[in-house]
Amino acid sequence: MEYNLGIVDVTVLVVYFIFIVWFGIKASKKGSDSTSDYFLAGRNMTWPIIGFSLFAASISSTTLIGKSGDAYSTGIAVFNYDLISVLVMVFFAMFFLPFYIKSGIFTIPEFLEKRFDKRSRYYFSFITLMGSTFLDAAGALYAASLLMKLVFPSMSIMSLSVIFALIVAAYTIPGGLSAAIKVDLIQGILLLGGTFILTFLAMSNGGLDYLKSLLLDGDYMMKLIRPLDDASVPWLGMIVGIPILGFYFWGNNQVLVQRVLTAKSIDHGRKGILLVGFLTVSLIFIIIFPAVIGKHLFPGLPKNDMVYPKLVIELMPTGLLGLMLAAMVAALTSTLSALLNSVATLFTMDFYTKMKKHTSQKEQVYVGKIVSVIVLVLAVLWVPFVSKFDSLLKYYQEMLTYIAPPVVAVFFLGVFWKRINKHGAFWGLIGGAFAAVVTVVAKVAFNFELLGDIHFLLKVPFYFVFSAVIIIVVSLLSKPDNKTEIEELIWTKKIYQEESKALIGVPFYKNFRVWSVILILFCFLVLYIYQ
């Protein structure tokens, strides 16, 4: 599928990218030599900015290209990843976010050191660095390049990857997270507007009648709850697999959590997460439904991942086509800008400052910029390997299945059980990694599935339980950590009671608990309608 853009759409695309680079550089803080300013935007962001920035950063290549491709072939079941994750967001905002913000951390691995020790911090930081570079950054570059190759067929994927890398570098590296977040605010609004227009056009071209007929006929394409043997999302996987992956994505992922750490207060951080929760629910209308309609409008596409670009190219009128393509690329470049800053923060704060003591804040910022350049180069070089996977979604899911469970087990047990100690946490992470390596080696070298031929979502709880057992056993067999050093990092009923007192007299429309309940009910309403 190729398409030659008209002069109007090309102009819109070029003008948009010039504007974004200009605005990003202009938005760079003058005080960006400060680590707090460069890596965490001065910790002064309000909830609307946090919410839209999170939304733009979370609409990655797996969402825009991968999930729409899955919806094209199997229906709306892929939306379960988002729906269940919204419930996880509420849980994270309620219990984990206050510890992150109050502890004053720059990175999520840094929290592990405060709760446990340096071993867990360095292990998780290294895993995150590798995953962000070769899983997320390379995937985002590949998706953006794949999209633009449709309209610039004479250019290679590698050439386009280099161009996008330079565009993102132009505003992210000089300005840090402050510039990236402000650009994300614009791109998040543009993405919402563009996708809603596309949804309207898809519905107007027979899509609404098609969806109605599927729903009335009870077609599996419009069902969220699927049989246990379903190849897309089995119902048991919804319960035992997605919550673990969702918590890793929203609660342990440096790329997204770093944006929440910019909040001026816990309340702003929580409301920012709730805002992105409501925006995430909208994905069923602006990403999933149009992809299902795409099966009706464009049956038999050679590659499922091409359905959303196909919808954009075929349905959007001149002018709006260029703007929508800009919105799609904006989503992917937002993800990349978020990755750059998170990786720069991780390396600088978790490794460089430990290897070289007494570094100035200016030097730390400089190192962060150098790391960003290196990550971009590595991501561009890794793009050809990403293209070898059948789909971006499979590439992402395969990797996340092995990375997420041990980390989630450590964070979950560490916050809710004070008896879990540093030895249990470290060996739980190592044990989980060992189990994953053994599984992969058995599959690749001997074509043998250790866990049997089951859905990957059903493998996730195995790694989680395996790691959790190691964490608990090792902790109970070794000396407890010093209670006075960790008591402020353990959740207790007292924390809930103190928050309840603080909320007395707060108007209901400003109470994050009220909005949390509304968001949860909204999710269950969607699940009920499309069960």
UniProtKB/TrEMBL annotation:
<feature type="transmembrane region" description="Helical">
    <location>
        <begin position="512"/>
        <end position="530"/>
    </location>
</feature>
<dbReference type="InterPro" id="IPR001734">
    <property type="entry name" value="Na/solute_symporter"/>
</dbReference>
<keyword id="KW-0812">Transmembrane</keyword>
<dbReference type="Pfam" id="PF00474">
    <property type="entry name" value="SSF"/>
</dbReference>
<feature type="transmembrane region" description="Helical">
    <location>
        <begin position="232"/>
        <end position="251"/>
    </location>
</feature>
<comment type="similarity">
    <text>Belongs to the sodium:solute symporter (SSF) (TC 2.A.21) family.</text>
</comment>
<feature type="transmembrane region" description="Helical">
    <location>
        <begin position="460"/>
        <end position="477"/>
    </location>
</feature>
<feature type="transmembrane region" description="Helical">
    <location>
        <begin position="272"/>
        <end position="298"/>
    </location>
</feature>
<feature type="transmembrane region" description="Helical">
    <location>
        <begin position="78"/>
        <end position="101"/>
    </location>
</feature>
<feature type="transmembrane region" description="Helical">
    <location>
        <begin position="150"/>
        <end position="173"/>
    </location>
</feature>
<dbReference type="GO" id="GO:0005886">
    <property type="term" value="C:plasma membrane"/>
</dbReference>
<keyword id="KW-0472">Membrane</keyword>
<protein>
    <submittedName>
        <fullName>Sodium/solute symporter</fullName>
    </submittedName>
</protein>
<feature type="transmembrane region" description="Helical">
    <location>
        <begin position="6"/>
        <end position="25"/>
    </location>
</feature>
<feature type="transmembrane region" description="Helical">
    <location>
        <begin position="318"/>
        <end position="344"/>
    </location>
</feature>
<feature type="transmembrane region" description="Helical">
    <location>
        <begin position="46"/>
        <end position="66"/>
    </location>
</feature>
<feature type="transmembrane region" description="Helical">
    <location>
        <begin position="424"/>
        <end position="448"/>
    </location>
</feature>
<feature type="transmembrane region" description="Helical">
    <location>
        <begin position="185"/>
        <end position="203"/>
    </location>
</feature>
<dbReference type="GO" id="GO:0005412">
    <property type="term" value="F:D-glucose:sodium symporter activity"/>
</dbReference>
<feature type="transmembrane region" description="Helical">
    <location>
        <begin position="122"/>
        <end position="144"/>
    </location>
</feature>
<dbReference type="InterPro" id="IPR038377">
    <property type="entry name" value="Na/Glc_symporter_sf"/>
</dbReference>
<feature type="transmembrane region" description="Helical">
    <location>
        <begin position="399"/>
        <end position="417"/>
    </location>
</feature>
<feature type="transmembrane region" description="Helical">
    <location>
        <begin position="365"/>
        <end position="387"/>
    </location>
</feature>
<keyword id="KW-1133">Transmembrane helix</keyword>
